[in-house]
Write a structure and sequence with these properties.
single chain; alpha/beta; Hypothetical protein af1432; Rossmann fold; eight-stranded mixed beta sheet; seven-stranded mixed beta sheet; 23 strands; disordered N terminus; antiviral defense; CRISPR-assoc_Cas3_HD_sf
């Protein structure tokens, strides 16, 4: 339908008006004056962003007109997808169009991203400048979000118009066939889904939301935007079904860019409010585009750093490469989209090998950065420290690439983040619907997500896995990974649910041209096959890959050129023969720890639950001569205390520790230390755990060659002078007639954490048979003895049920992973998921219950405000947080009504706290407490008993 009638034709009755007749007369007079200036159009009478009436300015603009906000966002998108960027060139290449064509189409789509705000239902949410704007209708309910209203307008108005071709610059004489329309709707899903998830307009009636004059204003605005931007529609390609499938796959990346453009374009500190009308062309050229160019450059999102040449491993690192590192510097990298799987023993230099491959990929232009996905926050802290001085040398000396640690609150751009944090909030739209500036504030306030946008990001693997789950803003995660190499350490730590999601990420990452590097010391053959198969599927190869090499160590490379499996030698210094000895009681464990302490050595006891670790530490503190030498480390410390403990652990047990640093120190820890932290103990005790974890823990025993006293040996590949290392395993004997409660009776906490008791028995049994761990020659045998296809035939009859229960649980996890993951082939649409969720940090790991982020707070001296527990830390709020099980969080006392009001005020000032639970520690809790020595603890954990 075309609109040729009077502007006010079809207007609804005055009975709903909020304005006096005098105000309406003044408004109409002003409109006539502006029309004489030849810049006022019907669409200039609609607001896009409004200042809340309660705290709006006495002087100055009260709103930002809808055309201007639309131009702001479009200008940012125009710059983000500039034809000079590798991002644009890559996407345009996949689509078979010119970069200028893609930029013009994307820019036009963003000009109409908020076209649903022309609805009278939306405009009636506020009346910021009544003398200038259309009259609101308070009786018209706003029940459909403005993004969905945009889709509704397209489906029921624009798509049915005979004048569409002229208004949207569709080439004259080119018919709009069904496939054309499908491709166009894929484009529109991108722009209307700019709030982080696709929208569905449903079957609402247009007249329930829009006045006829609203439709006409929206139509006029789209027409003038098309005339200004001149989108170059690839009509011939859009009519091709296969091209439409390609567009759907790329729509996720474009949707992420649309979200980012909307956020940056909503920054009031840059795109200030303007309510006086000027022509679209003038606003675009004089305001929107110059500010967009300056802002995107300032944030650093379009500043592609130039790669520095890779001059060889020894030149870069200053020491000779290990065999694996030598392979990494010499293997051929001839095409983009490479998957590398590096399997080698602990201490073989897998991290430096991965960094070498990343540097070479950057040098060749196949990627522009990296994201490191680690299993835990502790391991990501350690990785950050390792690469902080390395990554800048991947790039030109004149560049300043960004590095963000996902949970550290190190900002991608400090000044940008500060401007977001302190700017005035816009008027909220509706219940559960945030403005662009509010969403941007919360997202950028959370550094876990910013890490995906940095040149180099370090965080947990969860942030990458969320890219394939139907959470709000997942498209931005996927887009953030697109031009990077994804490096995932300790992949054997993935359960079957996480493995399913990781496979989905690898498939998606291969499709968008990225590369990936996976690191592990203990990988079952079945897992390697699944990961390689997923990558091949992303490359378009759907046949099951044939993997014939079961050697260890092994370096696998997968690209469009095929699969290569390269056996790698192991240097003598990391070949390991660790004896194993079983301990029947807690008394034996404590006796060995005391003896090691008295003899001047250092030791570690790894426990499988936090409560068990706290109990053990408490006993030692009460029974040894110097309690300060007993360090407790687990996951229930706030970030500030956790980082302090990590530093202390590295000082006394780290690679560079000397005999004095190490003498007489004991670490009581949970699983937080078994991955990535470079620790080296003289004595190691572990509660019984799965075989792969025991191998990992043994890797922290005599990790670096040392003298008998404990100083590092200075000669390369020097032999360790300490006695033969022994991994002491706290466990019951693996009898062939073991009873059902075999492990539960001995270690109830372990039985609850590792519920496949059959596999625990298998691991302990093979170690008893072998008498120890020999790496690398027995690595495959140890792993396959527990995880191989026929391993279950060796399990005692009483434990078989637990084995098959957990096997059933494994299959359930795989099924749940497939059910929850997005179907990316369907494109950015609601149909790609079994229901979309808000952005909450659950869903990447299956457990008995989700975990919750808790923020520890105190009252200030006057009792008038809340302050963070770690108020002296550089980022005090983030440093005052801890993540715990939901059932534990439920035991925390609720805030009083008065304190809860203070918390709500705090969240308004610090939007990143929205999804955390506050805990006023000063308030008495029946069962829980916190201090920097114990962390968050339960009173019941402060005693230890011999369970044998």
């Amino acid at each position: 339908m075309g609109f040729t009638g009077d502007f006010f034709s079809g207007a609804r009755p005055e009975s709903a008006g909020l304005l006096t007749s005098t105000t309406r007369d003044n408004r109409e007079s002003l409109v006539k004056i502006m029309q004489k200036d030849n810049c006022h159009q019907s669409y200039h009478r609609y607001w896009g962003k409004a200042m809340p009436q309660s705290n709006g300015p006495e002087n100055g603009p009260r709103c930002h007109l809808l055309p201007y906000h639309s131009m702001d966002v479009a200008a940012v998108g125009h710059v983000l997808l500039s034809e000079e960027t590798s991002r644009n060139r890559s996407l345009a290449g996949y689509l078979g169009i010119e970069p200028t064509e893609l930029q013009a189409v994307f820019t036009f789509l963003l000009t109409i991203h908020d076209i649903g705000k022309f609805a009278r239902a939306f405009q009636s949410l506020a009346a910021p400048a009544p003398e200038l704007l259309i009259e609101p209708d308070p009786h018209l309910p706003y029940r459909l979000r403005h993004d969905a209203l945009g889709m509704l307008l397209w489906k029921q108005c624009f798509s049915r118009s005979n004048e569409f071709s002229k208004a949207w610059s569709w080439p004259t004489g080119t018919a709009m066939e069904r496939q054309h329309k499908r491709s166009l709707e894929t484009f529109l899903n991108i722009t209307f889904g700019h709030h982080g998830k696709p929208v569905d307009a449903g079957s609402e009636a247009l007249a329930d939301h829009f006045y006829p004059e609203d439709e006409e204003a929206a139509w006029a605005f789209a027409r003038d935007c098309a005339a200004l931007v001149a989108p170059q529609w690839p009509c011939e390609l859009m009519g091709d079904k296969e091209w439409g499938k390609t567009l759907k796959r790329l729509s996720w990346h474009l949707a992420g860019q649309a979200v980012l453009a909307d956020w940056i374009g909503s920054d009031q500190s840059v795109f200030t409010y303007k309510e006086d009308p000027v022509s679209l062309e003038d606003y675009w050229n004089e305001t929107a585009l110059p500010k967009a160019v300056e802002t995107v450059h300032r944030i650093g999102l379009n500043n592609s750093s130039k790669p520095a040449p890779f001059k060889g491993f020894e030149t870069f690192y200053g020491f000779p490469p290990t065999p694996l590192q030598n392979w990494a510097e010499e293997t051929a990298i001839e095409a983009p989209s490479n998957l590398f799987i590096l399997e080698d023993v602990t201490g073989a230099g897998k991290t430096e090998a991965a960094l070498t491959l990343a540097h070479r990929l950057i040098e060749k232009g196949f990627v522009e950065g990296a994201y490191f996905g680690l299993p835990t926050m502790a391991t990501s802290n350690a990785m950050y420290s390792r690469i902080a001085d390395i990554y800048p040398r991947w790039f030109s000396e004149n560049d300043s690439p960004s590095l963000v640690l996902a949970h550290s609150a190190r900002h991608l751009n400090e000044s940008f983040a500060a401007s977001l944090e302190h700017q005035q909030q816009d008027t909220q739209y509706g219940i559960g619907e945030q403005t662009g500036s509010a969403s941007c504030n919360q997202w950028f306030a959370d550094s876990r997500k910013k890490a995906l946008l940095a040149d180099v990001g370090v965080g947990t693997i969860d942030q990458a896995l969320m890219a394939v789950l139907p959470f709000r803003h997942q498209s931005l995660r996927l887009a953030g990974l697109a031009n990077k190499v994804l490096i995932v350490d300790e992949i054997h730590a993935c359960d079957d649910y996480m493995l399913t999601l990781l496979a989905a990420v690898l498939e998606a990452h291969a499709k968008q041209g990225g590369s990936a590097i996976l690191l592990t010391a203990t990988l079952p053959i079945e897992m390697r096959e699944k990961l390689i198969s997923a990558w091949n599927k992303g490359l378009g190869e759907h046949e099951q890959p044939e993997l014939n090499n079961h050697n260890f160590p092994l370096a696998s490379q997968v690209s469009r050129n095929g699969i290569t499996e390269s056996p790698v030698k192991t240097r003598k210094s990391v070949q390991r023969h660790v004896l194993t000895q079983r301990l029947d009681s807690t008394d034996e464990v404590l006796a060995i720890l005391r003896e090691t302490m008295e003899q001047g050595g250092c030791a570690c006891w790894i426990r499988n639950t936090v409560d068990d670790a706290i109990a053990a530490a408490q006993w030692l503190w009460e029974s040894v001569a110097d309690p300060s030498r007993v360090i407790l480390f687990h996951s229930r410390f706030i970030m500030a205390d956790r980082q302090s403990i990590e530093e202390k652990a590295l000082t006394h047990f780290g690679k560079d520790s000397n005999a004095t640093d190490r003498r007489g120190y004991i670490l009581i820890a949970t699983q937080v230390i078994e991955q990535s932290l470079d620790l080296d103990f003289d004595c190691m005790i572990s509660d019984l755990a799965p075989i792969d974890l025991l191998i990992q823990r043994a890797g922290r025993l005599h990790r670096h060659s040392r003298t008998l006293k404990g100083d590092r040996c200075q000669q390369p590949d020097a032999k360790d002078k300490r006695p033969t290392p022994v991994l002491h395993i706290h466990a019951p004997p693996p009898q062939t007639n073991a009873e059902k409660d075999w492990i539960r009776r001995f270690l109830p906490g372990t039985a609850a954490v590792y519920r496949n008791h059959g596999q625990l028995w298998l691991g302990l049994n093979v170690l008893e048979e072998r008498g120890g761990i020999r790496m690398p020659e027995e690595a495959r045998h140890l792993i396959e003895s527990v995880y191989g296809p026929d391993a279950d035939t060796q399990i005692p009859e009483a434990l078989v049920d637990s084995f098959f229960e957990q096997e059933g649980e494994r299959q359930s996890q795989v099924t749940m992973g497939h059910f929850n993951r997005l179907n990316l082939d369907k494109g950015y649409t609601t149909a790609s998921a079994n229901g979309w969720q808000e952005e909450i940090d659950i869903g990447t790991r299956l457990s008995d219950e989700p975990s919750v982020t808790v923020t520890l707070v105190r009252l200030n001296e006057a009792g008038t405000a809340l302050k963070p527990w770690a108020e002296t830390a550089s980022h005090p709020w983030e440093m005052s947080q801890v993540r715990i099980r939901q059932s534990l969080a439920r035991q925390l006392p609720e805030l009083s009504p008065e304190t809860n009001e203070l918390w709500e005020t705090t969240v308004e000032q610090k939007p990143g706290l929205k999804f955390s639970v506050p805990w006023l520690v000063e308030q008495e809790a029946d069962a829980l407490n916190y201090n920097e020595r114990l962390g968050l603890y339960r009173q019941s954990a402060l005693s230890i008993e011999d369970k044998t």
